[in-house]
């Protein structure tokens, strides 16, 4: 069908045409609103993804920093352990257990 039936009177054709145009434009406006809403939602999601990427980058940098700090502290701990062991081996108090036992009495 062509959308306009010859059996209808002129008033009916005008009413149907007006309805069609109204529905078409309302539908078009609703589509625009839906597209705008979808576009806004996409922009919001993109912003959230970017924020999460930045947070992930910050956390990765923090992990690297903590690893480096941990490595330095392990190294310092080894130096201090060696220093304490050297002090204990050179001290007469820790040379043998009998001296330690006499010292504590």
Whole-Å distance between the termini? 117 Å
Q: Please state roughly what percent of the residues sit in beta strands, choosing from under 5%, 5-15%, 15-25%, 25-35%, 35-45% or over 45%.
A: under 5%
State the helix count. 2
Taking pLDDT < 50 over at least 5 consecutive residues as the criterion, the unreliable ranges are 1-6, 100-105
Q: Kindly state the mean pLDDT as a whole number?
A: 77
The SSE order reads HH
Q: Which class of secondary structure composition applies to the elements? A: mainly alpha
Largest sheet: none
Coarse morphology: rod-shaped
Helical content, roughly? over 70%
Number of strands: 0
Report Rg.
42 Å
Structure description:
- With 105 residues, this protein is mainly alpha-helical.
- It is 85% helix and 0% strand.
- Mean pLDDT is 77; it is low at 1-6 and 100-105.
- It has helices at 10-90, 97-104.
- It has two helices and no strands.
- The chain starts with 9 loop residues before the first helix and ends with a helix.
SSE topology:
Elements: H1 10-90, H2 97-104
Which labels suit this protein?
disordered N terminus, disordered C terminus, 105 residues, mainly alpha, single chain
Sum this structure up briefly.
The protein is mostly helical and 105 residues long. Helix content is 85%, strand content 0%. It has helices at 10-90, 97-104.
């Amino acid at each position: 069908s062509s959308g306009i039936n010859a059996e209808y009177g002129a008033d009916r054709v005008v009413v149907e045409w007006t309805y069609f145009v109204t529905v078409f434009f309302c539908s078009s406006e609703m589509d625009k609103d839906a597209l705008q809403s979808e576009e806004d939602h996409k922009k919001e999601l993109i912003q959230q993804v970017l924020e999460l990427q930045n947070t992930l980058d910050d956390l990765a940098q923090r992990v690297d920093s903590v690893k480096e700090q941990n490595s330095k502290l392990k190294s310092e701990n080894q130096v201090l352990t060696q220093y304490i062991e050297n002090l204990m081996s050179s001290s007469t108090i820790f040379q043998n257990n009998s001296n330690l036992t006499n010292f504590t009495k």
